[in-house]
């Protein structure tokens, strides 16, 4: 299974967040939603989770 990554640096924010989350898709989606709510003040909705799922990228293997 391909690991997924959510990287806040790819999206501008007022907090200039640098958090990167990686792991299995469900783990990353859950952690990214919690982060979006607690740090970026988003509301945890199905729409937010769908946007976050679209935001995820495949993790690149380490060299």
Automatic annotation (TrEMBL):
Any Pfam family the entry gives: DUF1059
Classification via InterPro entries: DUF1059
Protein name: DUF1059 domain-containing protein
Organism (species): Streptomyces mobaraensis
Lineage, highest ranks first: Bacteria, Bacillati, Actinomycetota, Actinomycetes, Kitasatosporales
